[in-house]
Design a protein that fits this description.
single chain, alpha/beta, Spore Coat Polysaccharide Biosynthesis Protein SpsA, Chain A, 2 domains, 14 strands, elongated, A1-4-GlycosylTfrase_dom
Length: 456
Amino acid sequence: MEKNTIRGDFTVADCNYFSKLQFSVFRRHFQKRALLSSFCCLPTSLLALALVLLLAYSAVSVFYLYVQFPVRISSEPVVFFPGNVRENARKWTSSSVNLSSNVIYAVEEESSAVISRTTRLHLLHDFDNFSLPFGYSSDFPSRMGRRKKRVIEIPHLQANRSRFSSRVKRFFSNYSCELRFFMTWISSLESFTDRELFTMESLFNSHPDACLLIVSNSMDSSRGKQILSRFFDNNFRLMAISPDYDYLFKNTMAARWFDQLRKGEISPGKVSLGQNLSNLLRLSLIYKFGGIYMDTDFIVLKKFSSLRNVIGAQNLDCKTGNWSRLNNAVMIFDKKHPLLRKFIQEFSLTFDGDKWGHNGPYLVSRVVKRISGRSEYNFTVLPPSAFYPVGWRRISRLLERPREEFPSKWLGSKVEEIRSQSFAIHMWNRKSRSIKIEEGSLVSHLMLDFCIFCNL
């Protein structure tokens, strides 16, 4: 019989192959049982030890700790150039500052190993949008661990300090200014609208011989001059100039605060840095030169000539009749007035970038309460009717045409009060900017009465 004779469905070769395969499987099975039997014969203590070692290995594999070694931190502030940050985050200099740049860079540190991104403080029209999502305390540079450098842009001081001072002195000396007005605009040109222009218009309508200095990086430009061209063409005494913070803060506590901010030793906080810089800048301007600071959202109704060393109350306590909050949107003080120095000191010592109003209206309120009754501070607090006859919650009523009997009566009495008692009306642009000025509203009538260019 041949080897390949068929037996059912298999050949003889197939049967031989399966016989060998069956033997191999049986042998492996026997080896496994022998190994298992040998393992079971081991002492119980050895088995327990092996189990403990296995569990320990598993725990280390899953719940391991990565310990970072502290990096060496340089005591010098790190300053980034714009080109270095954009081109290569690892190229940096630790000492020099590019004075020709439009911005300076401070460093804020977080836990990470590389520079992640440049946080830009764009100049926005709404200070609410001009913000930084930081929440650090002022001691964060001393923390150990890996660091991420977050770059903060701050509007840059002028490279030539004498340029700012000489321009301002020349501006005031060239004109016989009846009064000196100051405004700040740390924002974009796109956000400087007709409402801001009308504030200037109403100011010059009541004070045609006054001088107005607008401290602003964006307005001190060829395009800014175009926006203000109607005032220049009509020979109003006006100048826009970029701020020199070092010059303005010199010999005050603001200089040290600003230096710490640039070095990253002070957190700018969550509130707009532009808003807080404006709060300090206005104090420094009238402390340095003396005069009147005014926000860009007022309608000026009367001459300020009779006012000296005054600040306005925003709210009154109905029970006591005393003021409950002041506002820093209008301030009129002599040069180097002691109250202004106290305001600057308070700003520098108690700065908090996470609380809205803490470095502005609340600051002047708490300082005045603290020094109340002291003879060396000679100033007057004017009632709300002087500058804030209508609160921000009701300002929309001045912009809308009366449609109901009650608002109409309220508006009529408010008009009489404003015309007889108010020097100016704060329009609270932060709240009212989006509200259209309707024809027939109180503001529309005031704009016709106090405009200049509408009659040209």
